[in-house]
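Hi Y.,

Following your request, here is the sequence exactly as I used it, all 111 residues.
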Amino acid sequence: MFESIDVEKLYPLWLAMKEDGEACVIIDVRTPEEYAEVRVPGAKLIALNTVEARADEFPKQGKVYLICRSGVRSAQAAGYLAKQYGHSNLVNVSEGTTAWVNAGYPVERGH
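Below is the corresponding structure, written out as C-alpha cells. Let me know if you'd prefer a different format.
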C-alpha cells in the first residue's frame, strides 16, 4: 500500500535535495501545536484531522514523506490516502519527528 523509511535513511535524502535546491516534500500530520514546537525544516503542516478535506494538497507525483511524532498518525494518513485517492507515492517516516530530533538533525520551531 505504501512504503516506510526511518529518519536515518530520510535525512541523507533530505540533505541531498536541499543542497541541490530541490524540494523534499515532507508533510507533517501532527497538530498545529506540535508542529509549532518542533519540526523537520521545510515540512508542510496538514494535520491528520484535516487530511480528508485537504487531500488535493498531497502531490500524486514524486515521493511524498509523511511524518508525525512516532509514525502512527502518518501511517494512518498514508493508508487513508492510498485507499481513498489511489496515492502510490507516499512514504511513511516510521520513527517520526521524535527520532529526527533525537538524532540531532536540523529543526525549525515556531509558526
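Residues 3-102 form a domain with the Oxidized Rhodanese; domain 1 fold (CATH 3.40.250.10).

Thanks again,
Q.
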